[in-house]
Design goal:
heterodimer, A: mainly alpha, 2 helices, rod-shaped, B: mainly alpha
Amino acid sequence: MIWNSWQVFWAMGGYGLYVWGSFGVTLLCVVAEVGLLRRHRLQVWRRLKRMKSWDIQ
Amino acid sequence: MNLYHYASPSTFYPLAGKLIPWFAALAFLLAIAGLYISFFVAPTDFQQGEGYRIIFIHVPAAWMSMFIYVVMAFWSAIGLAWNTRLSFVMARALAPTGAMFTFVALWTGAFWGKPMWGAWWVWDARLTSELILLFLYVGVMALQAAIDDPRRADRAGALLNLVGVINVPIIYFSVKWWNTLHQGSSVSLTRAPSMAQTMLWGMLIMALAAWMYTIAVALARARTLVLERERQTEWVRAQLEGQP
């Protein structure tokens, strides 16, 4: 282990803002992309089901 | 193996559905391993201290941003040449993920540039050409969203992708062709990498994780596109009886 404590780990030798600002925003982007993708799929699914039910009538 | 068989949307849809969980799981496991190396195995840099650890995201994201564009242009070319529906779908499915990685490369670059160069941004050839790449991604998405007829939108976007791909070698060689503040590449195909082994491994594993993630997300997006486009067919109507 190269870190003596969690405090030292989060501080990143004084570069904490930059390191965590980079990794944090990347994580946010990935979570947002997957979330938007899922939401869009459900929207499309519901819309297509609705269109299908109109056809039958 | 008959490639045309897999190019049919009705074959692609269930196959992609089966593959996505595997690519997603691989992406997750590789990201965990890569992050572990990034923070707990890779040593402190003698010049940049802990600040250099941004490399483990910055470089894989920058690689992906360029590579996804090339793959997107490849599918665009195939689509234009053979008019295969699924090729256009793949090209479209890749654009948002490519834009995401380009943004991440620019963002992490700014967060690395500030402590090391003293500036969030400089109009240097590498940074500027990468920013143009972001505009190309956003541009093709906006163009295709603005054209109502999907077939015309596909063709217009594909053409833009083929013209835009010229920017990729410009980004790649920008650090050689111009005097840039951005450093040259530390990893190249022609010579030994100029970095510690563990750093290199961390970067490669993170890049592999980004690859698996891209495949999973692009396949998922392509599946939804296929569903929309084939909505008149019997097999999609049958699909809709199940769960999304």
